[in-house]
Amino acid sequence: MDMPEPLRELVDQLGEALVRALATDPASRELVGRIQTEGYDVGLMLEATVALHKREEEPGPEAAASEPDGPAVWSPEDRAFLKSFKIALD
């Protein structure tokens, strides 16, 4: 997929945000500490697949729910992805 540069920058920022979130997660930090206590250094490489699908239709009423002042609308894929990082939306 040929992405426009502004979109590519946003996707890169998303990746950086995910790495920061994992690096600052207390449970992750505790597990790394436990592994180091066992005498091992820890190196972590992550690969994330970001699927982008261009919306063809005009925004409907549900688009208003994704405005900054309203609640976010999460797809089942979004929820599964966040759940894999133990992020609860409820």
Helix and strand topology:
Blueprint: H1 5-24, H2 26-37, H3 76-84
Notes on the protein architecture:
- This protein is mostly helical and 90 residues long.
- The protein has one domain (5-84).
- The protein has three helices and no strands.
- The longest helix is centred in the N-terminal third of the chain and has 20 residues, at 5-24.
- 0% of the residues are buried.
Q: What does the overall shape look like?
A: elongated
Enumerate how many helices there are, as a single number: 3
- State the end-to-end CA separation: 33 Å
Order of helices and strands: HHH
Class by alpha and beta content: mainly alpha
Largest sheet: none
The helix fraction, in percent, is: 40-55%
Name the poorly predicted regions.
none
DSSP strand (E) fraction?
Answer: under 5%
Could you tell me the radius of gyration in angstroms?
17 Å
> On the 0-100 scale, what is the average pLDDT?
80
Indicate how many domains the architecture comprises. 1
Number of strands: 0
Which features characterize this protein?
single chain, about 90 residues, mainly alpha, about 0% strand, elongated
Summarize this entry quickly.
Helix content is 46%, strand content 0%.
